[in-house]
Design a protein that fits this description.
By secondary structure, this protein is an alpha/beta fold. It is 38% helix and 16% strand. The chain has 7 helices and 5 strands. Helix 6 links the parallel strand 4 and strand 5. Helix 5 crosses helix 6.
Amino acid sequence: MTRDTRPLAVFDLDNTLSATAHRQHFLERRPRDWDAFFAAAPDDPPLEEGVELCRTAAEECEVVYLTGRPERCRRATVAWLAAQGLPEGRIHMRGNRDFRPARITKVEVLRRLGVDREIRMLVDDDVLVCDAAEAAGFTVVRAGWATPSEELTHAQEREGRT
């Protein structure tokens, strides 16, 4: 087996490749219904701008997915990616009990990936993740094609949930 040495293109999922607006209401109630929020993820419609960028990146790069979704969502996430015809790739997910901010966990993974591979780009919608990745020296494509959600931003930064 030959080791892949192409650069990495790292893609977020929620609000980068998939539209989460239909499940935001689960985060607007108190307490937040995380189980329902993640259970509805398989019904996310694709975001064409992100999907097209991912397919184009796969022509030159190995695609890696980096999401704040918890590990328990892996099977549904793999199925969703396949259903969209997205390139196969490693999926880095948050541990089921890891509630650190996404800006910390994602940069940590990027640093690990970048030890022996060029990271061509990170594509993410989270402003704080993008800022932290740029500050760490990574090239970032800001996924501004989804409708931003204040509830999702709060969840990512303060609750470490996605």
